[in-house]
Design goal:
Arc Repressor Mutant, subunit A; single chain; mainly alpha
């Protein structure tokens, strides 16, 4: 990739992030930690992961995953359940309070992102999503090799 295109991409990612931030009313803005917590809750709701699976998904260390899971558990958003077939494994499970938090935050996110990306046609939006999925797939396959 040539340097000019890479610089343009970095700039566009940064300015797009700023647009999203600026279009979000200050009272509804979420900090980076809250965004991590929301993505964690969504992943747990969809997958009932083990701690290792969560750490791998978030690309964070096991101790960081433990701290994150403990904070979510303390808020009663998740609970831990022992695996029925392997007692050494614990799965993280979303609670009704956690589902409610996801629903509330997704509703706000949808409203803001719809406003921001409404300038794109369906085809452009599909292409945008496809590009991000491709980047993630390549990155994830490289992680599995290392």
């Amino acid at each position: 990739m040539n340097k000019a295109k890479l610089e343009k991409l970095i700039s566009l990612l940064f300015t797009t992030r700023q647009i999203v931030r600026d279009q979000t009313p200050e009272a509804e803005r979420v900090d980076a930690f809250s965004m991590l917590r929301m993505e964690t809750l969504r992943f747990i709701a969809d997958n009932k992961p083990s701690m290792k699976e969560l750490a791998d998904y978030l690309h964070i260390t096991a101790p960081s995953t433990t701290v994150l899971a403990q904070s979510l558990s303390k808020c009663k958003y998740i609970k831990r359940e022992k695996d029925l077939t392997d007692k050494r494994t614990t799965h993280l499970v979303i609670t009704p309070m956690g589902r409610s938090m996801i629903k509330k935050n997704l509703k706000l996110s949808y409203k803001h992102f719809e406003k921001i990306f409404s300038c794109l046609s369906e085809k452009q939006l599909d292409n945008f999503i496809s590009i991000f999925e491709e980047v993630q797939a390549v990155y994830n396959s490289q992680l599995k090799k290392s």
